[in-house]
Protein backbone atom coordinates (compact mmCIF):
# COMPACT_ATOMS: atom_id res chain seq x y z
CA UNK A 1 0.00 0.00 0.00
CA UNK A 2 1.34 3.40 -0.97
CA UNK A 3 1.70 5.83 1.94
CA UNK A 4 4.01 8.45 0.41
CA UNK A 5 4.44 10.04 -3.02
CA UNK A 6 7.51 11.78 -4.40
CA UNK A 7 7.46 14.03 -7.44
CA UNK A 8 10.03 15.30 -9.87
CA UNK A 9 9.59 18.99 -10.76
CA UNK A 10 10.72 19.87 -14.29
CA UNK A 11 8.62 18.38 -17.10
CA UNK A 12 6.56 16.52 -14.51
CA UNK A 13 4.69 19.14 -12.47
CA UNK A 14 5.79 22.21 -14.43
CA UNK A 15 6.84 22.84 -18.02
CA UNK A 16 8.36 25.83 -19.85
CA UNK A 17 6.18 27.79 -22.24
CA UNK A 18 9.12 28.07 -24.66
CA UNK A 19 11.48 25.30 -25.76
CA UNK A 20 14.57 24.79 -23.64
CA UNK A 21 16.67 25.17 -26.79
CA UNK A 22 15.23 28.64 -27.26
CA UNK A 23 15.70 29.48 -23.57
CA UNK A 24 19.36 28.47 -23.76
CA UNK A 25 19.90 30.65 -26.83
CA UNK A 26 18.16 33.58 -25.12
CA UNK A 27 20.43 33.20 -22.10
CA UNK A 28 23.61 33.06 -24.16
CA UNK A 29 22.51 36.18 -26.01
CA UNK A 30 21.49 38.08 -22.87
CA UNK A 31 24.56 36.89 -20.98
CA UNK A 32 27.03 38.27 -23.50
CA UNK A 33 27.76 35.29 -25.76
CA UNK A 34 25.43 35.78 -28.75
CA UNK A 35 28.05 34.27 -31.06
CA UNK A 36 27.58 30.91 -29.32
CA UNK A 37 23.81 30.60 -29.67
CA UNK A 38 24.26 28.24 -32.64
CA UNK A 39 27.33 26.53 -31.18
CA UNK A 40 26.30 25.47 -27.66
CA UNK A 41 23.23 23.28 -27.98
CA UNK A 42 20.85 21.56 -25.57
CA UNK A 43 22.79 18.27 -25.69
CA UNK A 44 26.00 20.01 -24.63
CA UNK A 45 24.13 21.78 -21.85
CA UNK A 46 22.65 18.54 -20.51
CA UNK A 47 26.07 16.87 -20.54
CA UNK A 48 27.58 19.75 -18.54
CA UNK A 49 24.61 19.90 -16.20
CA UNK A 50 25.01 16.20 -15.39
CA UNK A 51 28.59 16.92 -14.24
CA UNK A 52 27.40 19.46 -11.66
CA UNK A 53 24.20 18.03 -10.13
CA UNK A 54 25.29 18.95 -6.60
CA UNK A 55 26.43 22.50 -7.42
CA UNK A 56 24.98 25.56 -5.72
CA UNK A 57 24.41 27.34 -9.04
CA UNK A 58 24.74 26.86 -12.80
CA UNK A 59 27.95 28.90 -12.89
CA UNK A 60 30.20 25.79 -13.16
CA UNK A 61 27.87 24.42 -15.86
CA UNK A 62 28.33 27.51 -18.02
CA UNK A 63 32.01 27.75 -17.16
CA UNK A 64 32.39 24.26 -18.63
CA UNK A 65 30.35 25.19 -21.70
CA UNK A 66 32.11 28.49 -22.37
CA UNK A 67 35.60 27.17 -21.58
CA UNK A 68 36.49 25.68 -24.98
CA UNK A 69 35.39 28.83 -26.83
CA UNK A 70 37.06 32.20 -27.21
CA UNK A 71 34.22 34.03 -25.50
CA UNK A 72 34.45 37.01 -23.17
CA UNK A 73 31.14 36.27 -21.47
CA UNK A 74 31.10 35.78 -17.72
CA UNK A 75 29.69 32.34 -16.80
CA UNK A 76 27.95 33.92 -13.82
CA UNK A 77 26.12 36.38 -16.07
CA UNK A 78 25.03 33.65 -18.48
CA UNK A 79 23.91 31.47 -15.58
CA UNK A 80 21.85 34.34 -14.17
CA UNK A 81 20.28 35.00 -17.56
CA UNK A 82 19.41 31.32 -17.98
CA UNK A 83 17.96 31.10 -14.48
CA UNK A 84 15.73 34.08 -15.19
CA UNK A 85 14.64 32.76 -18.60
CA UNK A 86 13.83 29.25 -17.40
CA UNK A 87 12.11 30.35 -14.20
CA UNK A 88 9.80 32.91 -15.75
CA UNK A 89 8.87 30.53 -18.59
CA UNK A 90 7.58 27.86 -16.20
CA UNK A 91 3.87 27.07 -15.93
CA UNK A 92 2.26 24.31 -13.88
CA UNK A 93 0.95 21.23 -15.65
CA UNK A 94 -2.87 21.53 -15.75
CA UNK A 95 -4.32 21.17 -12.24
CA UNK A 96 -0.95 20.12 -10.77
CA UNK A 97 -1.24 22.35 -7.66
CA UNK A 98 -4.71 21.00 -6.96
CA UNK A 99 -3.44 17.45 -7.45
CA UNK A 100 -0.66 17.85 -4.89
CA UNK A 101 -3.04 19.47 -2.40
CA UNK A 102 -5.57 16.65 -2.77
CA UNK A 103 -2.93 13.93 -2.44
CA UNK A 104 -1.72 15.34 0.87
CA UNK A 105 -5.07 14.32 2.39
CA UNK A 106 -4.07 10.68 1.91
CA UNK A 107 -0.26 10.59 1.53
CA UNK A 108 2.95 12.21 2.63
CA UNK A 109 3.97 14.16 -0.49
CA UNK A 110 7.50 15.27 -1.36
CA UNK A 111 9.51 16.82 -4.17
CA UNK A 112 12.93 15.62 -5.32
CA UNK A 113 14.46 17.72 -8.07
CA UNK A 114 17.85 17.69 -9.75
CA UNK A 115 19.64 20.97 -10.18
CA UNK A 116 21.59 23.72 -8.46
CA UNK A 117 20.09 25.11 -5.28
CA UNK A 118 19.71 28.64 -6.61
CA UNK A 119 18.07 27.54 -9.84
CA UNK A 120 15.56 25.13 -8.35
CA UNK A 121 14.83 27.41 -5.39
CA UNK A 122 14.06 30.24 -7.81
CA UNK A 123 11.53 28.00 -9.58
CA UNK A 124 9.82 27.08 -6.32
CA UNK A 125 9.74 30.76 -5.31
CA UNK A 126 8.24 31.73 -8.66
CA UNK A 127 5.60 29.00 -8.52
CA UNK A 128 5.02 29.61 -4.78
CA UNK A 129 5.35 25.86 -4.16
CA UNK A 130 7.60 25.61 -1.12
CA UNK A 131 4.67 24.94 1.19
CA UNK A 132 2.83 22.73 -1.28
CA UNK A 133 4.84 19.67 -0.17
CA UNK A 134 5.59 17.95 3.09
CA UNK A 135 9.26 17.89 2.11
CA UNK A 136 11.45 19.33 -0.65
CA UNK A 137 14.91 18.05 -1.54
CA UNK A 138 17.18 19.62 -4.17
CA UNK A 139 20.20 17.71 -5.48
CA UNK A 140 22.43 20.75 -5.00
CA UNK A 141 21.94 20.27 -1.26
CA UNK A 142 22.60 16.51 -1.38
CA UNK A 143 25.65 14.25 -1.74
CA UNK A 144 24.30 13.12 -5.13
CA UNK A 145 21.42 13.72 -7.50
CA UNK A 146 19.02 11.34 -9.21
CA UNK A 147 19.42 8.56 -10.30
CA UNK A 148 21.80 7.94 -7.38
CA UNK A 149 20.14 5.98 -4.58
CA UNK A 150 21.35 8.55 -2.04
CA UNK A 151 19.05 11.17 -3.55
CA UNK A 152 16.01 8.94 -3.09
CA UNK A 153 17.18 7.99 0.40
CA UNK A 154 17.18 11.68 1.31
CA UNK A 155 13.60 12.03 0.13
CA UNK A 156 12.48 8.92 1.98
CA UNK A 157 14.13 10.15 5.16
CA UNK A 158 12.37 13.51 4.86
CA UNK A 159 9.02 11.81 4.31
CA UNK A 160 9.67 9.22 7.05
CA UNK A 161 8.69 6.54 4.55
CA UNK A 162 9.93 3.14 3.45
CA UNK A 163 10.82 2.51 -0.22
CA UNK A 164 8.18 -0.19 -0.75
CA UNK A 165 5.40 2.14 0.47
CA UNK A 166 6.52 5.10 -1.64
CA UNK A 167 5.75 5.92 -5.28
CA UNK A 168 7.95 8.25 -7.30
CA UNK A 169 6.41 10.19 -10.18
CA UNK A 170 8.67 11.65 -12.86
CA UNK A 171 9.28 12.09 -16.56
CA UNK A 172 12.93 11.05 -16.97
CA UNK A 173 13.30 7.34 -17.77
CA UNK A 174 16.73 7.10 -16.15
CA UNK A 175 16.91 9.76 -13.43
CA UNK A 176 13.35 9.34 -12.20
CA UNK A 177 12.13 5.88 -13.16
CA UNK A 178 15.22 3.68 -13.25
CA UNK A 179 16.78 5.49 -10.30
CA UNK A 180 13.68 5.21 -8.12
CA UNK A 181 13.12 1.57 -9.07
CA UNK A 182 16.71 0.70 -8.19
CA UNK A 183 16.20 2.37 -4.80
CA UNK A 184 13.19 0.13 -4.17
CA UNK A 185 10.39 2.65 -4.81
CA UNK A 186 7.34 2.08 -6.97
CA UNK A 187 7.45 4.19 -10.11
CA UNK A 188 5.05 6.15 -12.30
CA UNK A 189 6.48 7.39 -15.59
CA UNK A 190 5.06 10.71 -16.79
CA UNK A 191 4.92 10.73 -20.58
CA UNK A 192 5.16 13.67 -22.91
CA UNK A 193 3.88 13.49 -26.46
CA UNK A 194 5.55 10.60 -28.29
CA UNK A 195 7.25 9.16 -25.19
CA UNK A 196 7.25 5.43 -24.47
CA UNK A 197 6.97 4.04 -20.92
CA UNK A 198 10.27 2.96 -19.35
CA UNK A 199 10.60 -0.77 -18.84
CA UNK A 200 11.17 -0.28 -15.11
CA UNK A 201 7.96 1.72 -14.63
CA UNK A 202 5.16 0.17 -12.58
CA UNK A 203 2.70 2.49 -14.32
CA UNK A 204 2.67 5.40 -16.74
CA UNK A 205 0.50 8.45 -17.30
CA UNK A 206 0.28 11.10 -19.99
CA UNK A 207 1.44 14.44 -18.59
CA UNK A 208 -1.72 16.21 -19.70
CA UNK A 209 -3.78 13.61 -17.78
CA UNK A 210 -1.63 13.61 -14.66
CA UNK A 211 -4.14 15.27 -12.33
CA UNK A 212 -7.00 13.16 -13.64
CA UNK A 213 -5.35 9.73 -13.67
CA UNK A 214 -2.65 9.69 -10.99
CA UNK A 215 -4.90 9.27 -7.92
CA UNK A 216 -6.37 6.08 -9.38
CA UNK A 217 -2.95 4.79 -10.37
CA UNK A 218 -1.64 5.28 -6.84
CA UNK A 219 -4.57 3.39 -5.36
CA UNK A 220 -3.78 0.42 -7.61
CA UNK A 221 -0.04 0.24 -6.89
Q: Main sheet: which strands, in order across?
A: 5-4-1-6-7-8
Radius of gyration: 17 Å
Shape: elongated
CATH class of the largest domain: Alpha Beta
CATH topology of the largest domain: Rossmann fold
Domains (count)? 2
The CATH homologous superfamily of the largest domain is called HAD superfamily/HAD-like
- The percent range for strand residues is 15-25%
Describe this structure in words.
With 221 residues, this protein is an alpha/beta fold. The protein folds into two domains: 4-15 and 91-220, Rossmann fold (3-Layer(aba) Sandwich), CATH 3.40.50; 20-89. It is built from nine helices and eight strands. It has helices at 20-30, 42-50, 59-66, 75-89, 96-103, 117-127, 149-159, 173-182, 210-220; strands at 4-7, 14-16, 90-92, 108-113, 135-138, 166-170, 186-191, 203-206. Strands 5-4-1-6-7-8 form a six-stranded parallel sheet, sandwiched between helices. β4, α6 (117-127) and β5 form a beta-alpha-beta unit. α1 crosses α4, α2 (42-50) packs across α3 and α5 (96-103) runs parallel beside α9 (210-220). The radius of gyration is 17 Å and the shape is elongated. 44% of the residues are buried. The model has no long low-confidence stretch (mean pLDDT 96).
SSE blueprint and pairings:
Layout: E1 4-7, E2 14-16, H1 20-30, H2 42-50, H3 59-66, H4 75-89, E3 90-92, H5 96-103, E4 108-113, H6 117-127, E5 135-138, H7 149-159, E6 166-170, H8 173-182, E7 186-191, E8 203-206, H9 210-220
Parallel strand pairs: 1-4, 1-6, 4-5, 6-7, 7-8
Antiparallel strand pairs: 2-3
Amino acid sequence: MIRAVGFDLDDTLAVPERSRTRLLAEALDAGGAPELTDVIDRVAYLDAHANHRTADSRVPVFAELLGPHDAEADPAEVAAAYREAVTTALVPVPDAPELVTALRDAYRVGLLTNGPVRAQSAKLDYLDWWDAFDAVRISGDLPAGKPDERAFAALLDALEAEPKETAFVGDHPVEDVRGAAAAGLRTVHVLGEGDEPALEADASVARDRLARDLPGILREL
